[in-house]
Design brief:
heterodimer, A: 522 residues, two-stranded antiparallel sheet, B: mainly alpha, 0% strand
């Protein structure tokens, strides 16, 4: 063993310093830097000032990262690896990172909204205890949320950019660990929130253990964790097939869990329902985009020569995800839970774009992710505005007659639901059309047939909510609609993106197509 | 002993951990089983590193240890909170969210 160790070191015993392209990975560094600065603010700034310092800091970090991503995208040369091959900076990655950053900015509007007060004043205070009443009465606002958010977003940026599996695992954990905590911080219905955190944590770390064992098996197969090396080794058709297939299966399990594809979807409804709604909006948009980005990179780069091996299984997963998501959603009575099952069904639609394994599949998936992300953030923003005495009115029956009480909010929500259903002139239609077209071109027509059928099933429960809102009498003690400026801004942004991507999708379709021209770097 | 034996041991440990997660009821024990799975992975990494004669696997094992430590911090915090609220750390008792 010692001979290997000494051989790996340079002759003089010096370890050469790695070369890092700081400019190329600046968005990630900026977001993580702001997260660290946020921790310092928690430690050194007085309680009364923390909120006023943290919010602009987080906003600047995300906006700066987004601006830098655009600058990187405008250069001619957008096809390179950075940090000794650990991170890929290419078209799809920049598109995904830009999408994640802009969606995180919209979610930040919801998270920073003091009017709705979604977060517990002190997470450590027992629910219903004197300490909790004291901290709430003192008007304390929890500001640990902002650094946790920035760490999570930093992980989300690393996850789809990582060009080797170790970086991908670290990105996955940097993304997940803050999210586990954020789920447990709801101000109201704290038992549900804590339960969501426990379930998400236990299932999430269970799945990342499988993901890691998959990495170990692929390392055993290829002798390297770089995606390009694994692809080269698989192209040579050498080595143990057991290790390769086992590795693909376990790695896919970990990724499919993060997407919430059936049969690894069990956490999604519980966590979406229990988590504070701004965090649900963040998870439903940014985490999904990030996880799909990683999925695309792994399956388009490392396993590109092995489509015959993984495609049949992915077909099955995609079909049951679409059908189960749509069918189970019909029976839901809680609005957030229903949106969670809708998100599961959408993960199934998106998987058809991954299965296409073509340039069109990649660009259409990128477009769908951006379109769906904006719609889902807008929909959860609307959910935070419909409130009764105990906080948000989650039960569907409480939404009865909302169209008469507040036509504007009910109308906007109805529009978001129609976009989820994929009605023409909304972004949902354009996105679905693009992925289904790519799937047909890649000879996956049966998949598209199942997709269209489950879209029709899903349309049933979206329309049911619209009927409940507009064609039933409001209850006497029904919920009130409270819209604060920040939430209104989030709703308007979600709405604007949904309309624009539905009516004038071509510029963004071109952008996604341009991002996908050179595919992934390796 | 050949590296193959260590791989077999790693697979056995991983399976014990996965089974433990599925059958045990105490959240702390479930969590310990997840840690066992991560350590089984470390053993696999180090054995493969030995087989391939490069150091990548050993370096990955260090990263996994760091991640596992961070996971312990977050996990115990979450489990402690729910234990203080409910006076129970059984995963059967967290059953408010369903269907």
């Amino acid at each position: 063993m010692t001979s290997h160790v000494s051989a790996a070191l340079a002759p003089g015993g010096d370890i050469p310093a790695p070369h890092i392209e700081y400019g190329q990975i600046m968005p990630i560094l900026l977001v993580l830097g702001v997260a660290v600065a946020g921790v310092l603010v928690e430690a050194f700034v007085g309680r009364t000032w923390r909120y006023t310092v943290q919010v602009p800091l987080a906003f600047l970090g995300l906006a700066g990262g987004f601006a830098w991503t655009i600058v990187l995208g405008l250069r001619d040369e957008t096809h390179a690896v950075a940090a000794e091959g650990a991170l890929g900076v290419d078209g799809p990655t920049l598109f995904l990172q830009g999408t994640i950053l802009i969606l995180a900015l919209v979610s930040l509007l919801l998270i920073a909204d003091r009017g709705t007060g979604s977060f517990a004043a002190q997470a450590a205070a027992l629910p219903g205890s004197e300490a909790e009443q004291r901290t709430t009465a003192a008007g304390i606002i929890q500001t640990e949320v902002f650094p946790l958010l920035m760490f999570a977003v930093g992980g989300m940026l690393i996850f789809p950019a990582s060009n080797d599996l170790l970086t991908m695992f670290v990105g996955l954990e940097v993304m997940s660990l803050p999210l586990y905590l954020l789920c447990g911080l709801a101000r109201r219905r704290r038992l549900l929130s804590q339960e969501a955190a426990v379930k998400y944590f236990l299932l999430g770390s269970f799945s990342s253990a499988f993901f890691l064992y998959g990495i170990a098996l692929l390392y055993g197969y290829a002798g390297s964790v770089k995606l390009g090396d694994i692809a080269a080794e698989a192209g040579r058709d050498a080595g143990s097939e057991t290790l390769l297939l086992g590795g693909i299966a376990l790695l896919a399990l970990g990724l499919l869990f993060k997407l919430g594809a059936v049969p690894f979807h069990m956490w999604k409804p519980d966590v979406y329902q229990g988590a504070p709604t701004p965090i649900t909006a963040l998870m439903a948009s940014c985490t999904l985009v990030s996880a799909f980005g990683a999925m695309l990179r792994v399956f388009f780069v490392a396993f590109e020569n092995l489509t015959w091996e993984w495609r049949p299984a992915m077909w099955g997963v995609s079909i049951i995800t679409m059908i189960a998501g749509a069918v189970i959603a019909i029976t839901q009575t809680d609005i957030k839970r229903m949106l969670a099952y809708s998100s599961i069904a959408h993960a199934g639609f998106l998987l058809t774009g991954v299965i296409a394994t073509s340039r069109e599949g990649l660009s259409s998936t990128l477009f769908y992710l951006a379109a769906y992300g904006f719609t889902t953030v807008g929909a959860f923003a609307v959910v935070t505005t419909v409130r009764d005495a105990g906080g948000e009115a989650g039960h569907l029956s409480r939404w009865a007659g909302l169209g008469k009480r507040s036509p504007l909010i009910a109308g906007v929500f109805a529009f978001f639901l129609l976009a989820f259903a994929g009605i023409p002139l909304t972004s949902g239609f354009t996105g679905k059309f693009a992925v289904f077209k790519a799937a047909v071109e890649a000879d996956a027509t049966p998949l598209v047939v199942v997709g269209v059928i489950s879209s029709a099933i899903a349309a049933f429960f979206y329309v049911r909510v619209i009927v409940v809102m507009f064609f039933s009498e409001p209850e006497a003690d029904g919920p009130t609609v409270v819209v604060s400026p920040a939430t209104a801004a989030a709703v308007v942004l979600g709405l604007a993106a949904t309309v624009v991507l539905g009516v004038l999708p071509q510029p963004v379709l071109d952008l996604a197509g341009h991002a996908a021209t050179q595919m992934f770097v390796r | 002993m050949s590296p193959g034996h260590y791989l077999a041991l790693s697979a056995i440990l991983f399976t014990i951990g996965a089974l433990g997660v599925l059958v045990r009821r105490n959240a702390i024990v479930v969590f310990m089983c997840i840690e066992l799975m991560l350590n089984a992975t470390n053993l696999a990494f180090v054995s493969f590193s030995r087989m391939h004669g490069n150091l990548d696997g050993q370096i990955i094992a260090f990263f996994v240890m760091v991640v596992a430590a961070a996971e312990v911090v977050v996990g115990l915090a979450i489990i402690m909170t729910i234990f203080r609220t409910r006076r129970s750390s059984s995963v059967d008792d967290v059953n408010l969210l369903k269907y």
